[in-house]
Amino acid sequence: MPVFFIACRSRQSGIILNSEVLLIPIKHNVFMRGQESKGLKKKRLLAAGAALLLGAGVPLGAVFVVGCCAKPWRLVHEPLAAILLGWSAVAAVLAALFLMLMRHAERAAPRILWLAAALAGMGVLDGFNAAGGTSAAGCLHSAAALVGGLLMALSLLPERFVRHPASDWLPCLTAACCSLPGASLLLFPNFFPTADHLIWPLHLAGSCGFLLAGLALSQREKFPAACCAFLFAAEAAFFPLAGPWGAAWWLWRALRLAALFLLLGLFLSKCRGKIQQLRSNRDELENTRRQLADLIENSPSAVTLKDISGRVVLVNRRFEEIFGIKKKDVVGKSAADIMPYLSRRLKEPGTGSETVTEYEESISLKNGTRTFLTSCFSLPGGEENSSCVGCIQTDITERRQLEQKLRLDQKIIENTEDAIVVTDAEALIMDVNDAYTEITGYEREEVIGKNPRICKSDHHSKEFYEEMWRQLLESGSWSGEIWDRHKSGEVFEKWLTISAIRDSSGATVNYVGIFNDITEKKRIERKLKNLLFYDPLTKLPNRALFVERLEQAMISSQSRDIPLALFCIDLDRFKNINDSLGHKAGDELLAQAAKRIRGGVRKSDVVARLCGDEFAVILSEIKFRESAEHLAKRLIHLLQQPFHISGEEVFINASIGISLYPDDGMEAETLIRNSDTAMHFAKDREHGSFQHFSSQMNERLMHRLNVEKHLRHAVDNEEFILYYQPKYSLEEGQIIGAEALVRWQHPVEGMISPAEFIPIAEETGIITALGAWCLRTACRQIKAWDQQGLGLRRVAVNISSRQFENRELLTLLKSTLRETGLDPALLELEITESAVMEDPALAVELLREIRQLGVRIAIDDFGTGYSSLAYLKKFPVNSIKIDQSFIADLVKDSDDAAIVASIIQMGRSLHLEVVAEGVETLEQLEFLREKKCHEVQGYYFSKPLPPDKFATLVRRAAAQ
């Protein structure tokens, strides 16, 4: 059965009042007119033919039968005939009335009025015939046959001929016209002449009309109506053969009555169908009413209805929920009293107005202010003053908030600096924002409908994209760095985040990609990384990155059970080159040294610059200790090769400390500290060597730290004393002076050798305070000896390189001489050759100022540095001291003998006094006397003595 789908919808807002639609069944024969089967057509055609045969043949056979049997019943013919004619008249008139009602109710075709007119005329004439008796039977019945056949035949004309405004009155006009002869015959039966000769032509004409109508109706498949027409045709043709009151006469009347009742039955059956349809429509309307009531009651919007007087007649459940008012407190009351916020818009309905007014309003309720979309409309009724006003209020607070949020999100998306691209489930681009076009160079129209791979850079492998999609499909998101290509072809780096948007069933409907161009950011990061983790001069990792790499290497070494070695490399004499040739030359030297170290190790090894001239190397997978030693020798050899700096050929050396993991430390800092310790031991032992770390080094280091700690307190506690070693003049053969040597008298450890604490004092800077103490103490002692008449010509005091670098030395010297009142000629300052050569120009200036005070100057450890005669000529010195390392092998080593002889000869040539220290044998003394050395000192004559013993020695020697 077909159905109609009906949904109530607000005209402007598009809000459906109920989520379900109404299903209203409609009769099948109204909407479904399927074609009948061929078999059914044949059956109906046979039925029409049978009616024709019955109407023509049966009466002829019945005439003979009824004629033989009906004669005894002639006395009852007249009443029965009147009854049959009356029934025929009533049936014809009723059929005509039904046809007129059908035309008015269903707007049927105009031709149905012609059929109604035929039946009306026949019914009126038969009615007068029944009332007038047999005297008028032939005339009136002939007229009825003619009128009926003629009008029924005319009804079959084309519609343009039968359609006329006056056709609506045709049945009434026909009935009125037929009433005139019927009434005349009834009132004046003897007035009109008998016209029996016209009966046959009139019936024949009417029969032909009925026959034509039946055939036409059969062609139009209106078989019941065609059967009736054929019966009328048979009745009209049979009438002239029937004698008055005979059997044929009765059959004629029976056929006429049967045709009329058949036609009336058809109409009644159709009316019965109409009644059933009306009853069904009534039930459907009731069901629809209930559905509409449920729709209103269950509507998600608040529905209000008030009558013309302004009183509420209906509210639904949603109204109660929204406004918190019960139905019983609303119905029957004025809307202005209970809902003043609605009364502003709920106006009285205008006459015939069906305009819908929609607006938004904000209403303050108990749960806060809510926004409603209100629709007001008039519902005109069928009677006067029965109109109503309806109001539908839909809570759109969340929708407006969502719209506001969507607008805000849209603005954010449009103005964000991040590119946003939205694709469908097939990864085809649906939309992009402005940032996307700025970053990629593609306009929006160029990418819509395309795959994002149009920006593919070909920097990533197929496996990369497969892994990306695998993770995206599994987890619904992916993020990472990826390279893409600009429309211009330029490749850029971006950070991409892809998220899958899924529906309620979990199916992916969209993908959203957000990315930004991080090319510049990565460049800055790399630059910052270089600044933070790489040495800008050598481009090597700095200490921070080196420690990180070392920790990673240690983890790898532990997992693979293969040891690693750590080298700590220090460039010897770098400071001298840096100071003499300038810092630019020093930087160039460091860069070249770093390049040599990098080239001397494997690619897997890590080279770093820790600080200054100190480098470190991580040697992974060192299986043998000898491998580390071999590499250390190779690096030392590489660094000993000449460097070409600013057009100068420069030579340096390197000292390397080696520590092994895990033997020499389990932590990175421990391993670095131990290699640094080993490096210092190598440096102290001999420049250009390497040294493995050992536990004894730590012990010595701890001892060194302990000495340093006590050394700082020793200066304040005056735990130092000065010893004096005599100097002998070979020409005069007597003591002419001395050298002051400091000793540390530790309260617990006893006497500590200078060789143990002087280097520590030099490194820590304590030597400055200690040197000042030595100078003041020596000057006071010299002054005392001078006052005692000991007869010494001069006493030498050693000045460290740190003191010499400090300009306060001159101030200290002046204040000491002033405080002690010592004759400057009695004081001699011994300065090492390396100290004066660190900055020759400054040394010359300072030495001249010291000489101007009258203090003598001696170059100590001469021959161990790299001074030249040119500088020696410029230095305002009085004497030079040959280092004891040359004197020790003087007799055994011809080279040392030649060097000593050359130094003595050179000193004499420059008019400098030459002093040889460390003389311990007679052979050494004889050689020096032979070469005409001026002065000597050493254990051969005397070891350093305390002041009192030294004075005793001097007096005893003078007495001899």
Structural account:
The chain has 960 residues and is of the alpha+beta class. Helix content is 53%, strand content 19%. The chain is built from 35 helices and 28 strands. The longest helix has 51 residues, at 247-297. It is rod-shaped, with a radius of gyration of 69 Å. 34% of the residues are buried.
Count of β-strands: 28
Unreliable stretches covering 5 or more consecutive residues: 1-38, 51-75, 342-353
The chain-level structural class is alpha+beta
Helix content: 40-55%
Spatial order of the strands forming the largest sheet: 20-21-23-24-25-26-27-28
Residue fraction in strands = 15-25%
Straight-line distance between termini: 156 Å
Radius of gyration: 69 Å
Provide the residue-averaged pLDDT.
78
How many strands, which pairing sense, and closed or not: the largest β-sheet?
8 strands, mixed, barrel
Q: Specify the number of helices.
A: 35
Using brief descriptors, characterize the structure shown.
960 residues, alpha+beta, 8-stranded mixed beta barrel, 5-stranded antiparallel β-sheet, 35 helices, 53% helix, rod-shaped, disordered N terminus
